[in-house]
Amino acid sequence: MYEPRKILETLNYIPPEILSAQDYELLAPDFISQDRFAYISGGSGHDVTLTKNQQAFAKLAFIPRVLRDVDQGSTTTELLGQRFKHPILLAPVAYQTLVHPQGEQAAAYAAQATDSCIVASTLSSMTLEQIAEKAGSERWFQLYFQPDFKDTKHLLKRAVAAGYRAIVVTLDAAIQQPSMRAQRARFTFPADLIAANLVDQMAASRSSSAGNQSHIFQSYMQNLPSREQLQWLLENSPVPVLIKGVLHSEDALELKALGAAGIIVSNHGGRTLDGVPASLSMLPAIRSAVGDRFPLLLDSGIRSGGDIFKAIALGADAVLIGRLQVYALSVAGALGVAHMIKLLREELELTMAMTGCATINDIRLADLTTESSNLSRRNEC
Known about the structure:
This protein is an alpha/beta fold and 381 residues long. It has one domain: TIM Barrel (Alpha-Beta Barrel). It is 41% helix and 12% strand. Strands 4-5-6-7-8-9-10-11 form an 8-stranded parallel β-barrel, surrounded by 7 helices. Helix 6 (149-161) links the parallel strand 6 (139-143) and strand 7. Helix 13 crosses helix 14 (323-354). The chain starts with 22 loop residues before the first helix and ends in a 5-residue tail after the last strand.
């Protein structure tokens, strides 16, 4: 047994205290230094949106059903023309060597072992090629547009060459509101931590911008793609391009019209602008706007298989797991991430069985209720 708050090295086994996927969040402070945990667990500002994300799930309740045949139950789902064994993807999370020396490679290996898709971050501490070596065939690359568009094109070329089957463009994080929690913990990035995919670009940026401090608006526009640049990517990428960071239905419709292959409804886990709505609360309106057949994913706030069920019931085709991925990585490395995915999938299957849903499509017709108002969405599985 370990002594709480003293172990900061990753275990090579699953602690007996881990009984649910969310337990990794409870145990993570014993494996991550206090300042790093504050940075990872905190949101922007005063954590208002961070709190809203989880509250949105908690406000919804399942309605169990009886006499439903789920003997042939399955979590199989289709996305972008591909068949997935379950609707759980590993979200792009930057700088994972903050919690484990193998970082994103360990997470990629866990994805391969569990037939899961990993979305590798532009800001990973391992190169996209190193991550691809450990990942399974289902791997996507999250792309931040670079100030020099030639660098953006080069990242796309590298990702396609490394076998990434989709590109995820993040649009909601051109700048980020600072985290009060991280600042109070005096978190700073280690001097040896790098964005491995951007070493050449960062060196050029330092040499060209020395002594020229940008204002907020200038910084925002420098890191945000223009409409023309995004249109070029959508028209020229040899793999599907999804857009992450959408909360408004009109933006979703515009991106669909521009040619996006899918939308990820996300507020960046509460890490961009504090005070925006929970991702889950915006999901139904966006699904209604883009139609039933348009690929729609969700991240932000998911902590259980039950949460995954709720997201799918409200319109998501699949979900991305961010913080839980990092917490599991810190506790038990690749083994922990694989175990976390296994637990999420089992929790999802249990919820499906108890609500009479044999398939992912059945979940989309399931009843949810808000206990405060006792109002339910009336549908039949």
